[in-house]
Amino acid sequence: MKKLKLIIAIFVFFPLLLQAQERPNIIFILADDLGYIDLGCYGNPFNETPVLDQLAKNGMSFTQAYAHPACSPSRAALMTGKHPARLQITTALGLDRQEPNSPVVVPKTVENLPSSEITLAEILKRNGYNTGMVGKWHLGDTDKTGAFAQGFDYNRVISKNALDYYNYGISSNGKTIFEDNGSEYLTDKLTDYAVEFIQTQQKEHPFFLYLAYSAPHLLIIPKAEKVSKYMWKYNKFEGKYNPYYATMVESLDDGIGKIIKELERLKLDENTLIIFMSDNGGIGMDQIAYRPTTMEPLRKWKGHVYEGGIRVPLIMFWKNKIKADSKNENYVIIQDFVPTIMELIGDKAIPSNVDGKSILSTMYNPAAKFERGPVYFHFPHFSGQGGRPAGAVRDGAWKLVENYETGETELFNLDEDISESNDFKSENPKKAKELFSMLKKWQNEIDAKMPVKKDKQ
């Protein structure tokens, strides 16, 4: 009888064990306000990012990856696979600004990601993954909407002063477990928690780690011991780059290096998919003294639907699965990761109203034809970076931007003009009309909340 039970157990559990070994561990690292050209591998000659540069060399870098213009929308899209406008999370939670001199009143966002939404963590949990979240959640902090309630068993969340790198708090399961007294740099602390999570994993179960750094978001607070070399470089580059910001970017890079070394030490690097991305464009405002970064040649920055606000670095590494030193020129967007990861692990029960599209085929073969279809952007708000209410649609090379205050539109050809400096609307009114119609139809279909004229309130 015991032998029979043993044989049954082998037949039941061996396939599950085999499946766990075949499915990769997944680490998704999200930087905060990191610009498109802030990494060496994306052409930055000033910031030193050897770890991410090597990760790109060993894996794949995307030239046309998109997030959304602000923090919370991108995070909501990543967790649900849905467009932020569908979720009514279209700006950073708690930052519903109004502008007295504007002709419009902008809509309010919801206060948190509803607990009814099925998150990426919950999807992976039901597929046998251990789940961990470290860093900036920014999608709600109630008992039902915090990271611990949205599928993350291990959670170390910034709960106080997320933008102060030496005076912050960390919570787990909604309770404060650490308050800094000025001794532990926040980027380093988050790295330590990520390493701690990885060290607790057993090989018979795959894991998912969502590491959301707060760096290099303002406030610009670098580690003092790293600044001097960038000050030496500052004059060489005629003041174009910010040495303090560069120091913060390097600390971020250092942290990722520690995580990769730990994976190698534990022999987990062979079957771990690492994805690195930013939540929106960098802050390149000329109005800020000693501006953090430059978005050139892209137009504008965070808080805008122009390329500088939404085009971000994206690097993917999976040893012997993703082609080394490959460039992917297909355009993809952050909500694509839910259907992509679900296809990767063989889960076909995709939640309703998912807007993303699996990019798994182009991960494996960037040269293969990949019809992404249109991507939409909706930012009906005033941003702290000078952004104003606007929307956009990209379909192929063409992109249309709509100003929600005036109703005016612009048409750009991104294949010819990445800087969005030439408006083709008068030269190609048919294409402008086509894209405008697509944008309006999409807004209606997902019930996108729009600004309202003040005289119509």
Describe the protein's topology.
Layout: H1 2-22, E1 25-31, H2 50-58, E2 60-66, H3 71-80, H4 84-87, E3 104-105, H5 120-126, E4 130-135, E5 154-160, E6 169-172, E7 175-179, H6 186-199, E8 207-212, H7 224-234, H8 243-265, E9 272-278, H9 307-310, E10 311-317, E11 326-333, H10 337-345, H11 360-364, E12 375-379, E13 390-395, E14 398-403, E15 409-413, H12 429-445, E16 452-453
Parallel strand pairs: 1-8, 1-9, 2-11, 4-5, 4-8
Antiparallel strand pairs: 2-10, 3-16, 5-6, 6-7, 9-10, 12-13, 13-14, 14-15
Describe what you observe in this structure.
The protein has helices at 2-22, 50-58, 71-80, 84-87, 120-126, 186-199, 224-234, 243-265, 307-310, 337-345, 360-364, 429-445, and strands at 25-31, 60-66, 104-105, 130-135, 154-160, 169-172, 175-179, 207-212, 272-278, 311-317, 326-333, 375-379, 390-395, 398-403, 409-413, 452-453. The chain is α/β, with parallel strands linked by helices. It has one domain: Alkaline Phosphatase, subunit A (3-Layer(aba) Sandwich). A 10-stranded mixed β-sheet has the order 7-6-5-4-8-1-9-10-2-11, sandwiched between helices. Helix 6 (186-199) packs parallel to helix 8 (243-265) and helix 7 (224-234) packs across helix 8 (243-265). The protein is globular and about 60 Å long. GO terms for molecular function: arylsulfatase activity; metal ion binding; transferase activity.
The coarse overall form would be globular
By DSSP, the count of extended strands is 16
Reported by name, the CATH topology is Alkaline Phosphatase, subunit A
Percent helix range = 25-40%
Task: Assign the structural class, choosing from mainly alpha, mainly beta, alpha/beta, alpha+beta, or little secondary structure.
Answer: alpha/beta
Total discrete domains: 1
Top-tier CATH class: Alpha Beta
Report the biggest beta sheet as strand number plus sense, adding barrel if it closes. Answer: 10 strands, mixed
Strand content: 15-25%
